[in-house]
Amino acid sequence: MEKKQTINFGAGPAKLPQSVLFQAQKELMDYNGIGISVLEMSHRSSDFNKIMKSTETLLRELLSIPDNYKIMFLQGGGSGQFSAVPLNLIGLKQDRCADYLVTGTWSSKAAKEAEKYGKVNVVHPKQDSYTSIPTSSSWSLTSGASYLYYCCNETVHGVEFNFIPDTHGAVLVSDMSSNFLSRPVDVSKFGLIFAGAQKNVGCAGVTVVIVREDLIGYALKDCPVVLDYQVQAENNSLYNTPPCFSIYIMGLVLDWIKNNGGVDAMETLSKKKSSMIYDIINSSNGFYTCPVDVLCQSRMNIPFRVGKAEGDEAVEKKFLERASNLGMISLKGHRSVGGIRASLYNAVTVEEAAALASYMKEFLKEHQQ
Ligand code: PLP
C-alpha cells in the first residue's frame, strides 16, 4: 500500500525543506568526503570553521546585516535569551529599567524573566486577551529605559507585528523566533534580534543572536559566562561547544532560502499561503473564527476555532481526526488556547497550504448541510 503523504503544520520544531533533509541524509555518514559526520566533528576543526563562516555569511547576505552587528549561534533556546537579554542589556543605563510590550505568551514569559534583573515596565494597559497589539498611542515609554522589547510574532496566539515599534531613541530588542527570515527586516533599526532556529530556519538546538557591537560589554556581573555576549562574541560563539549539527542544518536552510528567492520570496509566499486560510475563515459565516485582530493576524501561525466562536470541542476533535487521516498533522492549538493552529513556516509549500484550505472548505460544506 502506498504511504500517504504527511503534511506537517506543527508550530516547532517544524517542517524542514525536503531538499535540506535529503542533503543532510546524503552527508550524514561522510561530510564533504572527509570520512566523518558533522555529528562527530570537532567544533575547532577547519571543516567546522568553514560551516560556521558560510552560515554567518549567508545570514548576513539574506538580511543585509550591517558590519557593525555581531552574529552569534548560541544554545539555550529562545528562553535562554529571555534571560540573556536583560542580563546583558538592562545595565546599559543606570536605572536598570526595561520597557516591554506584552502581546502573548512569549513576551509575557520574557518580561517575567527580566524582572529578576531589573525594573520592568509593561508600556501599555494590561490586555484581557492576546488578540491585538495595543495601539501605540496608549504606550507610555520610560525615559532612560535600557531597551524596549517585543515579540515580533507570538507563536501561540498568532499575533504578528507588521510594523517596527518606535522607541523614541531607546534600543530596540525583538524576539523573531517564529517569523525569522519570512520577510525582509531593516536590522539597523534594532539593537538586538534573536531567533530560535526550530521554526523557520532549521532544527532545535541553536539560537541566532544578532547584536549591535556597541551594546556588547554591559553584562551584569552575575551573568553566566555562556550567556555573556562579550565572551561569546569574542570567541565567535565557540566559548563552549556550540550546537554544531544544528548550525550545519541552519546553513543548509539558509542556502535553500537563498536559492528560492531570498526573504522577499519568502514574504510573497507567506502572504499567499496565509491568505488561503484566512479567506476561508472569513467567508465561513462564523463556522471558523480567528480571534485575532485583522491588523495583526500572523502569516506564520493561524489559530482558529471550529463550529462556534468559542469552539465546539466535539467538532474540533472531528476536524483534527479527519485532518490526520488525510496526513495533515500537528494542527492542534496550543494547550493554553485550544482549538486549531495551522503553522505555515517557510518550508510549508503553497500546495500544502492549498491542501489544508481545500480540506477546510470540504469540512465546512459538510457541516453546513
Ligand atoms: N519565542 C517564541 C516566539 C517562541 O515561539 C518560542 C517557542 O516556541 C520561544 C521563544 C521559546 O523557545 P525555546 O523553546 O527554544 O526556549
UniProtKB/TrEMBL annotation:
It comes from Umbra pygmaea (Eastern mudminnow). Its cofactor is pyridoxal 5'-phosphate. Coiled coil: none annotated. InterPro entries: Aminotrans_V_dom, Aminotrans_V_PyrdxlP_BS, Pser_aminoTfrase, PyrdxlP-dep_Trfase, PyrdxlP-dep_Trfase_major, PyrdxlP-dep_Trfase_small. One of its GO terms (molecular function) is O-phospho-L-serine:2-oxoglutarate aminotransferase activity. Pathway: Amino-acid biosynthesis; L-serine biosynthesis; L-serine from 3-phospho-D-glycerate: step 2/3. Gene3D superfamilies: Aspartate Aminotransferase, domain 1, Type I PLP-dependent aspartate aminotransferase-like (Major domain). Keywords: Amino-acid biosynthesis, Aminotransferase, Pyridoxal phosphate, Serine biosynthesis, Transferase. Residues 8-355 form the Aminotransferase class V domain. This is Phosphoserine aminotransferase. It catalyses: O-phospho-L-serine + 2-oxoglutarate = 3-phosphooxypyruvate + L-glutamate; 4-(phosphooxy)-L-threonine + 2-oxoglutarate = (R)-3-hydroxy-2-oxo-4-phosphooxybutanoate + L-glutamate. CDD domains: PSAT_like. Its EC number is 2.6.1.52. Belongs to the class-V pyridoxal-phosphate-dependent aminotransferase family. SerC subfamily. GO terms for biological process: L-serine biosynthetic process. Pfam families: Aminotran_5. PANTHER family: PHOSPHOSERINE AMINOTRANSFERASE.
